[in-house]
Amino acid sequence: MTSAPTPSTPPPSGNLDPAIAARLKRGADGLVPAIAQQYDTGEVLMLGWMDDEALHRTLTTGRCTYWSRSRQEYWVKGDTSGHIQRVKSVALDCDADTVLVRVDQTGAACHTGDRTCFDADVLPLAQ
Amino acid sequence: MTSAPTPSTPPPSGNLDPAIAARLKRGADGLVPAIAQQYDTGEVLMLGWMDDEALHRTLTTGRCTYWSRSRQEYWVKGDTSGHIQRVKSVALDCDADTVLVRVDQTGAACHTGDRTCFDADVLPLAQ
Question: Does B95 touch chain A if contact means CB atoms closer than 8 Å?
Answer without folding.
Answer: yes
